[in-house]
Amino acid sequence: MKDENQDGTQAIRRAASILKQIAHVSGDAPRNLRSISEAVGLPRSTTHRILKSLADTGLAAYDPALRRYEVGMLSYELGLAVSDRVLELSPWTACVDRVAERSNVTTYLMRRSGFEAVCVHKAESRAVIRVIPVEVGQRRYLGVGAGATALLAGLPDETSDRVIETIAPELVSFENLDADTVRAAVAEARETGFSESRGRAYRSIYGLGTVVRSLGDEPELAISIAVHAEGVDATRIETWKTIMREEIDETESRLDSVNGSAQ
Question: Domain HTH iclR-type, which positions (predicted)?
Fold first, then answer.
């Protein structure tokens, strides 16, 4: 019975790792059997067996035309379930909406999840040409992109160093990213309070991110924007920083007021 329990736990962990990999954004890497099996470190036969089970249950789906795996509808449906943790995000999703409205650039709410950041909310700009390097539900490594870098910079030195060492082999998928550039970006974010990404993760895209007040001992949430790098200057950057600071401060003030009234 002990061995069966261990096997069941291992199967669940493997399935969860594969689902996270399907939702992961890593350069231009395809989400096919080969790339997924290599990413999770499992034989193709084992990965294929798990993927088939995930597809059979609706947690994953396979697109035969594109020959790649996608997150299934059951995963989406399960994600609609409301919990207290989800409700805690509501003030910050509203904050993201206001930042996007005022700045007229695509704005994201990123949440730290282990060694990754997942996009939990997106507010698009009104611009004709919009920059959308990541969609809601997609994951990326900490240090890849402005919001994910802001979250990494908010961690203690020992933890951030361990994250960088772990993800370093995966950074080859990005043209201008390696362990040294991530460390430099983390140092800059800690000094200025904002992380900036100028074509570092995605060519021709400028990103700006900052963490919001932690829901725990370490930062869990970051707000970031993404825009075409062409035409971005110091004046626009300072304007965006001001908008983000004002909206974050206003959200925190409202939360303090609500929490104070509840006590």
Answer: 9-73
